[in-house]
Amino acid sequence: MDKKSLRDFFSHEQQDSILTAIRKAENRTSGEIRVRLDTRAGENPKQTARQVFDSLGMRKTALRNGVLFYLSVEDRKFVILGDDGIYHKVPPDFWDGVTGLVLDHFRQGHYADGLVAGIEKAGEQLARYFPRQANDVDELANEISVGD
Ligand code: CA
Ligand code: CA
Hints:
This protein is of the alpha/beta class. Helix content is 46%, strand content 16%. One calcium ion (CA) binds at residues 26, 30, 32, 136-139.
């Protein structure tokens, strides 16, 4: 799938709801959320998501609390990846509930709804461990990026 098809994977309306979910979540937490779409994740989706995380500069947050929702649309892989600050602060099963919720939607083919639900849920949990500060900065621009 080429870059343009990836960009068109979600309608404008769906992109808006995903970006709105990110903005709302970030209104409650200092955590920084992004979404990435790739064609294929390859042999090791976690490793691929980690490379994307690095290449997007997502480690550049003060509290190391960036979170990436990674989805590959042809081989249907999904990974949520959080930066080190999250793993130092929260229980290991932190993301299991979020991942389960997202996959429930994905199984019905509802990709945008799944991401929105997952982002909302992640936002609730992040708000507990990383509440938004009064002087919050949008450290990572809210975006849905696409792979090559
Ligand atoms: Ca922020
Ligand atoms: Ca942001």
